[in-house]
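Fold sample X.
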Amino acid sequence: MTSVSVRNFSIIAHIDHGKSTLADRMLERTGSISERNMRAQVLDSMDLERERGITIKAQAVRLDYHASDGSAVVLNLIDTPGHVDFSYEVSRSLAACEGAVLLVDAAQGVEAQTLANAYLAIEAGLEIIPVINKIDLPAADPDKVAAEIALILGVEADGVIRVSAKTGDGIEELLDRIVRDIPPPTSEGDELRALVFDSYYDSYRGVVCYVRVVDGVLAAGDTVRFSATAERHTAAEVGVLTPLAVPVAQLGPGEVGYLITGVKEIDRIRVGDTITHPGQAAVRPLPGYAEPRPMVYSGLFPSDGDDLERLREALEKLRMNDASLVFEPETSRALGFGFRCGFLGLLHMEIVRERLEREYNLDLVATAPSVAYRVTATDGSSFEIRSPQDLPDRGKIELLEEPYVRAMIIAPSEYTGTIMELVQTRRGSMDHMQYLSPERVELTYNLPLAEVVFDFFDHLKSRTRGYASLDYEPGEYRISDLVKVDILLNGQPVDAFSTITHNEKAYLYGKKMVERLRQLIPRQLFDVPIQAAIGTRVIARETVKARRKDVIAKCYGGDVSRKRKLLERQKEGKKRMKMVGSVEVPQDAFISALRVDTET
């Protein structure tokens, strides 16, 4: 097969703009899937994706298409996620393509993630085909949306394709446009170079790599070399996804498929690596893509300490399928041994935790999420902390900096005032404002990451009746007035509830947590003080009252001194018990306190 007959492209869009439905229509039109096997969002294979109605993992599929001019073309399609937390999946997919279909909802118009994905494709040097979807909706206004797209991409509004992924209108025109406008892949030589752009772990077959062959031929039975690890293995099977895995004899230049080497050690194969033949040690590795930069950190601990090794194995296997996940061992006095994990956002964190519990049958406790702070100590050293318990004493800190992000908000112009008010309460500053049309405005702000990743998006949606969209990218570190708030039970700090927050919001966090814990912790045989403290200064307190046995119930009349003596003896006993007793915090109390904290 010659490279001229191949086209590699991704579908990129904001969440819920119809990417997976458009992929369904392409599968139907090219006859890649039978009517009997067809279902909605066929490429969303995970249960979580189908339950939530979102794409989490990028999926590759090969389509055999006969264009209107009679030519036979192989289309390699990669369907990508749309949520900002999974933008790393998009960047990896674009590295394997020459073109991108930029999909925009005809009713909702250009959204923040639409712009972000368009910029990713432009930076990757891809040919962009703008498409307006859902033209069959009653609220659709394709002419206005086409004008917005033309303004952003600098193209003619008449050249924007209009389709309905639901009814199939315009699919033929789009496929022909892909064949005509997206350039075929080029090859620089006959020596093998293939990019590993994704992978997953199969219990029976080991690591399965998704590869894009750039130069040369990858054939079954070849001995291949992975450049980053210098590992050598035999290509036990190569094949294509149609969307079912179909073995083939070889993959030529420009083709996308999978490679199975039988390797079961997860750390031997890395996403972004270059595959070559062993005799080609001097071959220049393919440019990979930017390493993922976690935005949110949280501790994951097994409810049963015996499951620690199972959790480690599950995280390693999941990282094969999700290269943006990072983790390292962590110890907590309250929760025992676990792992400090880095995520791209709260949705990413929630999805990873749910996949670990479902796919690997684990029961986990997650600590309150935090971001990475930069500390400059009094001795001049500078380092990054990812957990509140790693923060040194205040006397040893010269400077404490927090990460900022550059946030892009697109919303109807009538909500500009309420958005500005919300951002001001989150310590944000405006960078610039631009009108995409008389009805839609783009606002760019610099905001502390800690204020964005938790509940900012929920408040933004509620204040704009769901019409605003948000995207953000990492910015710089800035000096802030930050403090560490500790939660103490019976005078002992519980590291699982500690957090680093701005000084202005420390009291609110402390008051909220002590009130919540007072309701969750069962009564003991002695009074349990629950305190929120900054260093040695207590800023909030609640008390769980002791269970009290009625020691004078058996006294009927008689001298009052006898009753007083019994009460004094009980009082002394409770005092001794409080000194030596430990507060048992039920597991569900940890789960409830921490879970609610991420939702409020």
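Fold sample Y, listed below.
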Amino acid sequence: MKKYKSYILIILSILNFSCNNEVDLIIVNSEIYTANENNQIAKSIAVKDGKIIEVSSENLVSKYEANEILDTNGKTILPGFIDSHCHFYNLGLDQQVVDLRGTTSFEEIIERLIASDLNNQTDVILGRGWDQNDWDKKQFPVNTELNKVFKNKLVVLERIDGHAYIVNDNALELAGIDQNTLVRGGLVLLKDNRPTGVLIDAPMSMVDKVLPEKSIREKVNALKQAQEISFSYGLTTVSDAGLSTEIINVIDSLHKSEELKIKIYAMVSVSKKNIQRLKETGIIKTPKLNVRSFKVYGDGALGSRGAALKKPYCDDPHNYGFLRTDIKDLKYYANEIAGMGFQMNTHAIGDSTVSVLLKEYQKVLNDIEDPRWRIEHSQVVDLNEFELYNDKILPSVQPTHATSDMYWAYDRLGKRIDGAYAFKDLLSQSKRIALGTDFPVEKVNPFHTFYSSIERKDLNGYPENGFQIENALTREETLKGMTIWGAYFNFEEDEKGTIEKGKSADFIIIDQNIMKIEADKIPNTKVLKTFVDGELVFQKDAL
């Protein structure tokens, strides 16, 4: 009997050993940048049940039995990219409107709208992506021609940064906007004492209220389209900077039905009502959704001269910009959010706004151990206030903003440009920095982010020596800013952001090694495969 039991134990131990060594996927013959603490470069990964079982410099095929073995023939593997500041849902919505990017005049905008209207014939025309800084005449337009061509339609055209509209008179009338309209945190631009149709920041919400509500199908399609685009660029997690609780619920439902597989760190658009809602629910955490932060809107944008500056704009000497949320409300939000144990992430472009936030954050966070509150953009910082950033107050920045703004930023700021887009200086203070794109303000492509971060040049290689090159990040810092530091900013560093044992199998295979190749080749990098929790969610070509 004892002998019989011994045989059973031996057989069970063999079976158990066999089960423990079965995995879903082994990847071999790769150059794997783990982005871990030691910047380890490995050759092989084993994945089981969506997790990384082992990372090794040896071929793991001899150690595990795999359902699938993938030989990449020396291709580069990186952790899945995390875009730390974007507008994921808005990217999807943008696929449903007229694309106005790259227009060189208001006349060209009219032409694009006419062409689109011939095909669609709708009562409401929406467009996005114009930037008057790209036009020969760099002034905001007047809507006279818009009124002539589309006199019976409602037209709303959003600036590329999302901080200004051009609308026709129909939209103004429906929204109740005229020459006497005054709204805190924004401007209705006038000419000859009548509205031009250009609205900066706060008055835009008056127009939003008269636009037709999106159907649930349109919302779902927008999220799915945004996911498809994101996966094709190797994004596995996106931090959406400003979502309604309604859209967050739609995202959660799509995650549960597995129609949406991308991981989302959702910053809830701040309001007193939403604060009360989240007080009741507390932090919401699922395998693919994390809701523990609020997006607060500090000021406007530099391009539309709505960013709040300590001194006037050099090219508009009577204009200081403005706070979109007044200081009293900022203090209220800060105290409420701190009391909830949530993260406060505030849009701050101008040095006045950054200054206010640094000081208010500091007061509120004094006794909180690990808040990780964020200043989104941290775009223009007073040279005397960099030292106020630390491990509690973190900068979330967008490298491509520097290389798209550099053509006109000096005109706005003058010598204050020395404290603008200062990523290396911010990193030296906070020890970590999160990188994003702010898409669809900028293009989704994270390889543009990588290139701008290390070279400080636009895609044409300008300027030759880099824009304020002293604030460039290294390739290692940039990779971490797009992976593990992004995870850290989201309180998710224990589950993602590096290719390490026990973490989610979120990684990408790319066609060239961005850690070694000549810098000017980086923007042309293509993603070959994207994996989320070990599942292949995008494939460009078979390896």
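Sample Y note: Confidence is low (pLDDT under 50) at residues 9-18.
Also: The first strand starts at residue 22 and ends at 28.
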